[in-house]
Amino acid sequence: MTLRSTKQAFGAVTKTIHWVMALLVISVFSIGWYMDFLPLGMEKLEWISRHKSLGVTVLALVILRVIWRHSEQTPKELSDLQIERLAAKAGHLGLYLLMFAMPLTGWTMSSAANYPVSVFGLFTLPNLVSPNQELFETLRTAHWLLSWAIAGLVGVHILAALKHHFWDRDTTLRRMLPGKIKEN
Length: 184
Description:
Elements: H1 12-36, H2 42-71, H3 82-112, E1 117-119, E2 123-125, H4 133-168
């Protein structure tokens, strides 16, 4: 398998970023959901810190992913249906936008609450806004809504991949899996 994508298959770099981001998004969502049920205390603060660090990692990787995607070709689309190709483009754009917006709303929300965003204890991000309780509440709601939007869009993404694999019986899913694909 090559590092870069070709017209037939995704490259190792694209596949690696895809699956690392998938694991990160699931982890950040799960941690966010879990920490909401914890009482205020040290355990909750530790989970919040992990959530923020992983969220910043998602932001960095989505920026890297967009740069990488624009620097290489992508495999040709397998669907002959224009509506499917448009839905795929819209879904991918939505995922990119949400993976960018989620960490930014979290970072801005932390800034508005005057809580620093430490990234794995290595460095602290600067505040994006001055402390503002009303803005914090608005951003908290936005962050929560965006989390469910991304969960829904990830679900649709998974269902679309499974539809291609089991219904259409094409290589859409297999060409994003690790390793080299074998054509039918």
